[in-house]
């Protein structure tokens, strides 16, 4: 208590009193909960200590944090985070909450319960009074664990004391129960939040219990179907039928949109980390002078009691009772009755020795009866050999002599040889039961050995060899399963459980720091990489990996691998290998090479040039997007803690080695370009790019992290990257990821202008010379970011004078500061637009993370031109265009530019133009046309090369495909509205500006032949027939305005309007109703009035 001031008492419960306090010498406000020892048995006290130790390890934003704990002779004290608000008080004030607010609370409570149940902790006292509200409106679950520890052996009525409003039927009936009692309580709380009272309520406790057990829950009609379904799943009186983990996490009611998920994750990251006043692995200990009776450790007792029988939140399966060791007794023979004394009898062998003897007998038979020199793929199917493998996990580890380890190693070697043959013939494998059995047996053996390895006294080298061979066998078993085609009994395999068992063992091996186990870390990392590379269902595997802690382990291993670096920066071979394997695994997580995923869906604009369009499949986009956000955020968060420095150091090592090889083999052609996406440099850049994209703090840390590089201290990543560019040793795909990484950091606004200028100087000549589509795209993004947001000024040059710069630097300066577009830059951008070859499609797949793409490679070139135009746009002398704008417009005075655009649109952008890129292209086209609408040559070029393509954008199949394209990656309702408006604006420019009569007639002829009126009417009909698009009538205004211009400009368009049942469309869309805007009504009336000149009658439509 010497570290805390008591401020006031804030509560009192059945287990003690709660005070608000302050940590001495700080302003930290805490809650102190005191529990008396009076009346507690030694078992109760030991139980409570064990619970405190469990709760110390919990660290989650939706669980009140345990910050400290101690005990005196008379009482325990738990120091927790202080949260001022209570959900109970909110209910008292508001009576009920909107469903959207309830959903937010439900999501957070589900997160908290998932953590508790994953740690085998049952709350048992869920109620609004135990749900607090912390900073930034975060829900905090409190008062868990202590009730069970103290009242473990008391009766039900004694333990609940008050009214059981929130208790499950099995609890109030004193029946066996499991963690689902917490889920029932959650359902009651959510019901009360919605209706203002619990589902069962009466002042009489006996009646209340009868209602909970017998009565059905009545749901209000105002409750949504998803919410009602969720509550029915929680408030099922049969615990076996209640919602369980992990199904509850997939329920529609608690599914979040990507935006909601990101908002919640950002909030969790913003909430500051609370201090813990104990060491990471420090246990709560009783006072040194306390003399309590020794009791069986409470964890063992709790694991054997009914309460914990089915507490695995991932499977929901009942946990088996722990085996109780049988103590061996030896009866003493009676040596009296004149019997001659004999030699003392041999002591009875302990029971566990039988297992070893069985193994030795079976191994002896394997050695004698089987041809171990000529192993075949059927070896594992042999009952004798399978029995030997099965016995491995039963051998007591304290009997691991050198001879025993040698026999085990020989057995594992035979198993490995047989597995290799099975892998070669995996296409012929139809039965894999023996394979899975062997894998499970090796898993158990390896787990047992690793867990107790520190206590073994056997030969360390032999033990290390056995562990290595186990990992090797496990790895090849996994590879075989992932290589088997469907059609075998593999379809019966629970792939999630299969992955989880592998990941658990890998994690166990990697987290063990003992040298004997650490020797197999590299192999375990290869095993992990093989799983990712060959997985049949990568989505399932990644869903298993994300919560397993493997990513954190990889980052720690990466950090640890750099410990072997000398003061000069050199690293040992073993440390380097360990670091590289960690890099490959992390790169596979952030950007998996998913052969099992379906090919990329083509961008919507490609539907205009392909006749073989397949239906849009968007069902997998959202879960993959969520998974990508989770994994990238986790990698970013863990790298922020450890590993980023070693990543930079490894990057420097690899680039340095690449430069050395390039200098020593100057005459040799660069090799490995086709495999460059798997190079170490590329993997490091992928990790940094994706993790920085998801973590702003990591981006900032990356800019300030310094390493020792080539005996120079304080070297940053930018120096290393720019050296790689200038030396010419980076492959094109490596340059792409390096440039994308620089762009991500630029967006964060953490780079000083001097550093930005250095980067731009290095990459400017790369842009001039580049021909690769991906690299040109990344470079366009990089320079677009600088032009738009970096505000380069003379401070970027240091002491240099802008007027005295070298010619190339002067061009760069004018581009970044004034928007003056040099010809070499525009040439590079149009080279990007011209690269629409089929092989670019496979490159797009290679550059895509999690099979999701929201942007195309061509987008960045268009955005670059837009931002340059914006920089150069300011007028001089009130109305005169700037010299920079004239330079920009000169690009479009050549037919070559329009021919490139023509080819780009004719090929649908080669599937490299996203909906967002197409919208930007239309915006760019509108700017260029409006700037030079009075120049006939420009309009002629537009009519000749682009007008027909623009009309075709209104094709119904394109609009429908764009509508089906997932909104999360740039499609959906907003995309349709934006595209229609942008297209109509560009098409309407000649009618809104004074162009020559000849050009106007030419434009009208093209629009007439392209059936622009019919296409517009088709779009309008689709808009109004689609519920999601019907929400805003404003989407009609621009299309109708353009239609009115067309119809009033020529009777030919009027005829087309009538032939396409335009009046029926006007009626269906209600364009003359009082709900429409005046401008929409006026344009509609203009069309109607103009149609009197058309021979066909219009009255039939009304």
Automatic annotation (TrEMBL):
<keyword id="KW-0963">Cytoplasm</keyword>
<keyword id="KW-0206">Cytoskeleton</keyword>
<keyword id="KW-0547">Nucleotide-binding</keyword>
<dbReference type="GO" id="GO:0004674">
    <property type="term" value="F:protein serine/threonine kinase activity"/>
</dbReference>
<protein>
    <recommendedName>
        <fullName>non-specific serine/threonine protein kinase</fullName>
        <ecNumber>2.7.11.1</ecNumber>
    </recommendedName>
</protein>
<keyword id="KW-0418">Kinase</keyword>
<feature type="binding site">
    <location>
        <position position="33"/>
    </location>
    <ligand>
        <name>ATP</name>
    </ligand>
</feature>
<dbReference type="InterPro" id="IPR008271">
    <property type="entry name" value="Ser/Thr_kinase_AS"/>
</dbReference>
<feature type="region of interest" description="Disordered">
    <location>
        <begin position="314"/>
        <end position="350"/>
    </location>
</feature>
<dbReference type="InterPro" id="IPR011009">
    <property type="entry name" value="Kinase-like_dom_sf"/>
</dbReference>
<keyword id="KW-0067">ATP-binding</keyword>
<dbReference type="Pfam" id="PF00069">
    <property type="entry name" value="Pkinase"/>
</dbReference>
<dbReference type="GO" id="GO:0005856">
    <property type="term" value="C:cytoskeleton"/>
</dbReference>
<dbReference type="InterPro" id="IPR017441">
    <property type="entry name" value="Protein_kinase_ATP_BS"/>
</dbReference>
<feature type="domain" description="Protein kinase">
    <location>
        <begin position="4"/>
        <end position="254"/>
    </location>
</feature>
<keyword id="KW-0723">Serine/threonine-protein kinase</keyword>
<keyword id="KW-0808">Transferase</keyword>
<dbReference type="GO" id="GO:0005524">
    <property type="term" value="F:ATP binding"/>
</dbReference>
<dbReference type="InterPro" id="IPR000719">
    <property type="entry name" value="Prot_kinase_dom"/>
</dbReference>
<dbReference type="GO" id="GO:0005737">
    <property type="term" value="C:cytoplasm"/>
</dbReference>
């Amino acid at each position: 208590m010497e570290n805390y001031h008591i401020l006031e008492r804030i509560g009192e419960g059945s287990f003690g009193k709660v005070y608000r306090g302050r940590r001495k010498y700080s302003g930290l406000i805490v809650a102190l909960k005191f529990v008396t020892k009076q009346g507690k048995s030694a078992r109760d006290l030991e139980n409570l200590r064990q619970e405190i130790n469990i709760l110390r390890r919990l660290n989650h934003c939706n669980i009140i944090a345990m910050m400290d704990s101690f005990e005196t002779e008379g009482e325990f004290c738990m120091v927790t985070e202080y949260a001022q608000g209570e959900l109970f008080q909110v209910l008292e004030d508001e009576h009920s909450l909107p469903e959207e607010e309830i959903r937010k609370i439900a999501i957070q409570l589900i997160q908290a319960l998932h953590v508790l149940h994953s740690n085998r902790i049952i709350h048992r006292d869920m109620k609004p009074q135990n749900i607090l509200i912390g900073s930034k409106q975060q829900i905090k679950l409190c008062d868990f664990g202590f009730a069970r520890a103290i009242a473990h052996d008391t009766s039900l009525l004694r333990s609940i004391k008050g009214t059981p409003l929130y208790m499950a039927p099995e609890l109030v009936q004193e029946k066996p129960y499991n963690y689902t009692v917490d889920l029932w309580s959650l359902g009651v709380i959510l019901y009360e939040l919605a209706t203002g009272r619990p589902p069962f309520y009466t002042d009489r406790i006996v009646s209340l219990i009868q209602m909970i057990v017998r009565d059905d829950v009545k749901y209000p009609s105002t409750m949504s179907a998803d919410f009602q379904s969720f509550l029915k799943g929680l408030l099922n009186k049969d615990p076996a039928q209640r919602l369980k983990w992990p199904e509850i996490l997939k329920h529609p009611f608690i599914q979040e949109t990507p935006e909601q998920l990101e908002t919640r994750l950002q909030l969790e990251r913003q909430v500051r980390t609370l201090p813990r006043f104990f060491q990471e692995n420090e246990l709560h200990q009783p006072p040194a002078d306390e003399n309590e009776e020794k009791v069986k450790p409470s964890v063992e007792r709790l694991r054997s009691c009914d309460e914990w029988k089915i507490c695995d939140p991932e499977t929901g399966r009942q946990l088996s009772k722990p085996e109780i060791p049988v103590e061996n007794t030896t009866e003493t023979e009676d040596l009296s009755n004149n019997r001659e004394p004999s030699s003392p009898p041999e002591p009875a062998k302990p029971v566990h020795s039988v297992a070893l003897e069985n193994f030795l007998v079976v191994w002896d038979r394997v050695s004698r009866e089987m041809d171990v020199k000529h192993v075949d793929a059927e070896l594992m199917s042999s009952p004798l050999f399978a029995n030997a493998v099965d016995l491995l996990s039963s051998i007591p580890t304290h009997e691991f002599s050198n001879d025993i380890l040698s026999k085990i190693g020989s057995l594992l070697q035979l198993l490995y040889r047989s597995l290799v043959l099975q892998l070669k013939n995996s296409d012929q494998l139809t039965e894999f039961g023996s394979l899975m059995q062997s894998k499970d047996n090796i898993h158990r053996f390896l787990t047992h050995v690793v867990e107790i390895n520190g206590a073994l006294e056997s030969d360390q080298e032999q033990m290390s060899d056995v562990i290595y061979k186990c990992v090797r066998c496990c790895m090849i078993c996994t590879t075989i399963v992932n290589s088997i085609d469907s059609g075998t009994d593999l379809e019966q395999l629970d792939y999630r459980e299969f992955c989880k068992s592998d990941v658990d063992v890998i994690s166990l091996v990697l987290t063990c720091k003992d040298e004997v186990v650490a020797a197999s870390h590299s192999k375990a990392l290869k095993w992990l990489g093989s799983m990712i590379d060959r997985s049949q269902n990568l989505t399932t595997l990644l869903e298993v990996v994300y919560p397993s802690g493997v990513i954190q382990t990889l980052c720690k291993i990466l950090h640890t691998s750099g410990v072997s670096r000398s003061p000069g920066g050199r690293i040992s071979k073993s440390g380097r290998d360990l670091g590289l394997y960690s890099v490959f695994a992390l790169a596979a997580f952030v950007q998996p090479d998913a052969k099992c995923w379906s090919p990329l869906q083509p961008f919507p604009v490609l539907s205009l040039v392909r006749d073989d369009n397949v239906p849009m499949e968007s069902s997998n986009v959202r879960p993959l997007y969520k998974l990508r956000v989770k994994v990238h955020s986790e990698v970013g968060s863990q790298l922020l803690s450890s590993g980023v420095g070693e990543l930079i150091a490894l990057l420097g090592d690899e680039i340095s080695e690449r430069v050395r090889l390039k200098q020593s083999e100057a005459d040799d052609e660069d090799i490995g370009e086709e495999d460059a996406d798997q190079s170490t440099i590329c993997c490091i850049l992928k990790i940094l790019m994706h993790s920085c994209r998801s973590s702003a703090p990591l981006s900032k840390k990356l800019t300030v992290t310094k390493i020792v590089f080539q005996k120079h201290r304080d070297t940053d990543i930018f120096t290393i990257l720019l050296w790689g560019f200038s030396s010419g040793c980076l492959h094109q795909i490596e340059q792409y990821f390096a440039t994308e990484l620089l762009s991500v950091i630029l967006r964060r606004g953490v780079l000083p202008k001097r550093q930005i200028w250095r980067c731009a100087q290095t990459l400017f000549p790369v842009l001039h010379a580049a021909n690769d589509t991906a690299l040109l795209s990344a470079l366009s993004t990089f320079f677009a970011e600088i032009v738009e947001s970096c505000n380069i000024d003379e401070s970027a040059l240091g002491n240099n004078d802008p007027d005295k710069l070298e010619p190339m630097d002067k061009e760069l300066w004018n581009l970044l500061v004034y928007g003056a577009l040099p010809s070499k830059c525009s040439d590079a951008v149009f080279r990007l637009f011209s690269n629409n070859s089929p092989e670019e499609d496979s490159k797009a797949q290679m550059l895509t993370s999690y099979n999701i793409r929201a942007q195309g490679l061509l987008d960045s070139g268009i955005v670059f031109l837009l931002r340059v135009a914006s920089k150069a746009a300011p007028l001089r002398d009130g109305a005169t265009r700037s010299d920079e704008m004239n330079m920009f417009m000169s690009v479009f005075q050549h037919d070559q530019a329009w021919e490139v655009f023509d080819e780009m649109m004719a090929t649908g952008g080669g599937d490299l133009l996203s909906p967002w890129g197409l919208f930007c292209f239309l915006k760019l086209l509108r700017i260029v046309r409006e700037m030079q609408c009075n120049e006939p040559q420009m309009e002629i070029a537009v009519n000749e090369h682009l007008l027909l393509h623009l009309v075709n954008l209104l094709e119904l199949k394109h609009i429908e495909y764009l509508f089906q394209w997932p909104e999360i990656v740039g499609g959906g309702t907003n995309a349709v509205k934006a595209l229609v408006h942008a297209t109509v604006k560009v098409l309407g420019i000649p009618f809104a500006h004074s162009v020559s009569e000849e050009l106007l007639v030419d434009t009208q002829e093209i629009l007439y032949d392209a059936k622009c009126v019919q296409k517009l009417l088709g779009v309008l009909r689709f808009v109004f027939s689609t519920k999601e698009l019907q929400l805003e009538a404003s989407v009609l205004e621009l299309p109708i305005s353009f239609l009115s211009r067309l119809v009033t400009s020529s009777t030919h368009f009027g005829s087309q309007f009538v032939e396409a049942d335009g009046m029926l469309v006007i009626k269906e869309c209600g364009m003359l109703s009082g709900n429409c805007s005046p401008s929409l009504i006026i344009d509609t009336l203009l069309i109607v009035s103009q149609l009197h000149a058309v021979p066909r009658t219009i009255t039939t439509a009304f």
